[in-house]
TrEMBL record:
Keywords: DNA-binding. It comes from the Bacteria. It comes from Dictyobacter arantiisoli. The keyword DNA-binding applies. This is Core-binding (CB) domain-containing protein. GO terms for molecular function: DNA binding. PROSITE patterns: CB (PS51900). The keyword DNA-binding applies. Residues 1-43 form the Core-binding (CB) domain.
Length: 101
């Protein structure tokens, strides 16, 4: 029964997903968005008069610095494009690798 769910219960659920299950922000947000859509539907169908998920904020995304390829990874990429790709493909990959792109 959707009217039994409260905003604090949803906030605790978000915390549980983050702290106890150690889910990443995208996974937590996917669960929260599903709940928000469900409660939006329940309001539209007039099963509830208040959306308890409205005040619940989504989790901020983790920012990661771009990672560079290790020497072995670069060599494997060049070998793969040499064996499977065209000369144009190899030139593009080598150009991208040597210019830092």
């Amino acid at each position: 029964m959707p009217q039994a769910i409260t905003t604090p219960a949803l906030t605790c659920y978000r915390t549980y997903l983050q702290k106890e299950l150690h889910q990443k922000p995208n996974s937590v947000n996917r669960a929260l968005i599903s709940l928000k859509r469900y409660f939006g539907w329940a309001m539209q169908e007039q099963f509830i008069s208040y959306d308890p998920s409205a005040p619940v904020k989504l989790v901020g995304e983790e920012e990661h610095a771009p990672r560079h390829l290790e020497d072995e990874e670069e060599q494997a990429l060049v070998a793969a494009v040499t064996n499977e790709g065209t000369l144009r493909d190899r030139v593009l990959i080598v150009l991208l690798l040597h210019t830092g792109l």
